[in-house]
From TrEMBL:
SUPFAM superfamilies: Galactose-binding domain-like. It comes from the Bacteria. This is Uncharacterized protein. InterPro entries: Galactose-bd-like_sf. Residues 1-24 form the signal peptide. Keywords: Signal. The keyword Signal applies.
Amino acid sequence: MNRLRNLLPAGIAAGALVTGMALAAPAATAAQTASGRANVVTALDYNSTGWTYRQVPPTTQVPDFADRGFDDSGWPLGQAGFGTTNGTCSWNNENTVKTPWAVDTDILVRHWIHLPRDAQQVRIQGTVDNDAQVYFNGHLVQSVKSGKCAAGAIDVVVPVADLDCCNLIAVRGHDGGVATYLNLRVTYVKPTNAF
């Protein structure tokens, strides 16, 4: 009996330790799941093909060109980057400019992007010489005045309310003279299980 009394406190302490560990495990797992792990996925990369585009004088209005229902079937197809191969930007060369964009014009570009339903933090990044208006599914998400080819001047996370499965990115690039350049990419975060 004395032996049993001596073991009882040790048994209770061990039982409390095991119970405490068992209760703590789900909390740690929940914390891992809440913080999650994520992969950044490129939905549309720099120098991508399949862009429809049109060059227009700067004062030309093209109503609704950024809307999903706009008919761009008569526009040519091009590859990004758009620009001139002569200029002061490091991107103004034959390796990075795939489609010509004339100086002193605006360029309208459109591209469809498919995103999975769990896509999060959809981000548009890029460079423009000189200015740009960036649209996503017809909504203006960023206006950029980058001057002379400021790298990464285009950088915006698309509001969740603007996301769909099949999405349209549209940009109006504006040139102020000397040289032109426009190149973009779209990425998103895809959550993964921590297990």
